[in-house]
From TrEMBL:
It comes from Roseburia zhanii. PANTHER family: AMINOGLYCOSIDE PHOSPHOTRANSFERASE DOMAIN-CONTAINING PROTEIN-RELATED, SLR1880 PROTEIN. InterPro entries: Aminoglycoside_PTrfase (IPR002575), Kinase-like_dom_sf (IPR011009), Pseudomonas-type_ThrB (IPR050249). Residues 19-253 form the Aminoglycoside phosphotransferase domain. It holds the Pfam family APH. This is Aminoglycoside phosphotransferase family protein.
Amino acid sequence: MEKKDILGHFRIEGEFTSVEAYGSGHINHTFLAKTKEQKKYILQGINSTIFRDTDALMENIAGVTGFLKKEIIRQGGDPDRETLTVIPTKDGKLYFTDPDHNKWRVYPFIEGASAFDAVKSAEDFYQTGLAFGRFQSMLADYPAEKLHETIPDFHNTKKRYEDFEKAVAEDVCHRASSVAEEIAFVRARKEEMPLLSDMQKRGELPLRVTHNDTKLNNIMFDDMTHEAVCVIDLDTVMPGLSMHDFGDAIRFGANTAAEDETDLSKVSLSLELFEVYVKGFLKGCDGRLTKTEIEMLPMGAKMMTLECGMRFLADYLQGDIYFKTARDTHNLDRSRTQFALVLDMEKKWDRMCEICRRWEK
């Protein structure tokens, strides 16, 4: 179907003048649609290979955004600008299925705001922490257990380790012998991997609504004030732990090197950026995290980094079947970068914990 015909199935008034590819996302197919009346909308083709249960996916998004709108109104904010709005189809559904069984959804475009792919300043990282902290705060009373698990075991580090060991044992590409050092690095930290999930099972950590992709480019920044306005890309919103969201942001944003840097001497945890993010995140959380959650934030950073490195290495052993690669050792390089970052976190552990205690107050 033509994109304009797809848009015609949604509750949108006006005549569409253009529909063009938009953004740099790798998962869904995203388009910016404009109308004769100067209105803009985001049309997305949902990746059904990754998100197989579209009903569950869209129920999560509609539930969370509906809850957020009420909270934003209660706090005197702008619900049309500070969270996404799912536009229903003309028959009241959350998405449209075309004749080829492709799934489509529509959001209003957030005017006067932009997303960025890289942290350009400490203030950017602070604003990111503030936004994801507010996300935690505003959804603190949402019943996380009612959310669907759209990607099972997404941050189940113990299960990720089991998958890793399976990849090592099968060694389908005969690569295991060449990465014995990296395999040993992972195995040496096996006992820590179930720590967070075990604490949650014992009731020591509360189940939260988590975003699960807390990168800078999932925040919209106001074009005038450059303050964080809205958290976007809610596809991976699921029940989880606050330190998952915190840790993934640190893994991505506080590393002094690129994710696939081959010169490991460039890889380290920037304590300056770590503190900037802690400050913003805890301010945004506005006292909604427990003391134990705050104490475990450094462990969240370590586990999310270790988990990611483990996934890169497992994919390398399996022949690079999941993550896109640009060279033969790309996934291996990525895993080594993550492991180097874990090692630096371990060296700076006491300072990381002290920073979290300092901004808890």
